Structures are given as structure tokens and as C-alpha cells.
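F.,

This is the one I mentioned.
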């Protein structure tokens, strides 16, 4: 398996690609077969739920310790998305796409795109 595949993780449970059966890719994120299965179970429960109570944000049901334990997972997903975006921008630069076009696509100026994504090497 190529090195980059070994570094892929599920954006939801944060398991490595080698720890799950399959990872499905989205725009800068991945979801594993286990989380997909859990999503299916949640959706099925929702279909059968008779409750009309409003949903609380997930952090309202968590203790402070649980929230603190969850923060590094969110940060890791953000880093994964940032790395993926950097790879896509690098690929565009390899095709000689201008910083102006890249910036416009991302809703930022050419200068901002260059400052954020320029290669440091």
C-alpha cells in the first residue's frame, strides 16, 4: 500500500485505513464502512422515532471531559482536510493554473491563495 494511503483516516471515528475494511472518500474527508453502518442505524432509528422533541447540539449531551477528549479528533480532521486542499492546489499549480484562478475558486485573493498554499521548498 502506498504511504499516503496508510495515513488516511476516517474523518468521523479517526481510525486508520488499515483498521477498517473500506474508506470512502469525499471532498477532503473520508468515512469508513463502520461509520457508514452506524449512520444507517441512526437513520433507521430516526425513521421509527415518534419523538418531536427538538434536537440539542451534540455537545449539550456531553460532559466537559468528553468535549475536551473530542477536540483533538476535530483538529486532526481539520489538518487532514487542509492537507488534502494543499494537495489539490499543488496539482493545479503543476498544471500551471494561475494563483488568481485558484484564489477566485476559493473565494480569496490571488495574494491570499499564494500566501496560504505556496510551496516552502
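My design for it:
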Amino acid at each position: 500500500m502506498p504511504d499516503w494511503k496508510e495515513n488516511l483516516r476516517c474523518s468521523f471515528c479517526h481510525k486508520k485505513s488499515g483498521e477498517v475494511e473500506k474508506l470512502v472518500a469525499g471532498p477532503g474527508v473520508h468515512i469508513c464502512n463502520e461509520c457508514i453502518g452506524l449512520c444507517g442505524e441512526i437513520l433507521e432509528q430516526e425513521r421509527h422515532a415518534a419523538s418531536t422533541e427538538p434536537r440539542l447540539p451534540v455537545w449539550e449531551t456531553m460532559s466537559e471531559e468528553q468535549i475536551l477528549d473530542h477536540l483533538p479528533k476535530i483538529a486532526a480532521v481539520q489538518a487532514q482536510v487542509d492537507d488534502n486542499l494543499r494537495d489539490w492546489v499543488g496539482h493545479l499549480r503543476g498544471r500551471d493554473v494561475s494563483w488568481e484562478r485558484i484564489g477566485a475558486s476559493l473565494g480569496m485573493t490571488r495574494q491570499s491563495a499564494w500566501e496560504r498554499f505556496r510551496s516552502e521548498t
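The chain has two domains: 1-55, 58-121.

Talk soon.
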